[in-house]
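TPR repeat protein
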Amino acid sequence: MSIPDSADLAAARIDAIRQAAEQGDAQTQFELGHMTARGEGVTGDKTEGAGWLQKAGEQGHVDAQFLLAGLYLMGDGVAQSAPEGCKWLEKAANQGHADAQYLLGLMREDGDGCDIDAADAVRWYSQAADQDHAGAQYRLAQLKEHGVGCEIDLTEAFKWYRRAALQDYPDAREDLLGLCRAHPDLPLPVSELLDGKGRS
């Protein structure tokens, strides 16, 4: 009895994934879409890959929604459409995808592909920051420091700069020191000094 070689096993795996995807399984639709869009193990076809990601995204697969958003924003395998990209980003963000929340915050802050809404940017950054997304923590700190989309709250700005700095996010440590120098009487949040995230 011959032992199947690695190429045969890989082909059998692809066939199994494709069969499950065609039967409507969201996870395998996502896997097939990701593989096809990138040409990993199958012939690369970004348009076909986007189609599988869309099928998975329509079933609520959060990673498919996030990748599909990127395809629409970049016009990669689909017609470029910032509104469509925002729509899929928001679907992923509403399911708690931290990178989607952060990117949606950036887009709401800058009006890149959607209406400027600084308060909504704060909302999305806050949700991502609570999941330890360093970029969101840094942007949230800046908005809290300068009162963009929210009231000025230097104590909150300190907290989020510090958490981003603890993750070595670029400029966070420098901005944290700048905040403390500019406001030497700033009351430091005790929780930041005592809890696990407050330890350096």
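thats it. The chain has two domains: 8-84, 96-200. The chain has a mean pLDDT of 90. bye
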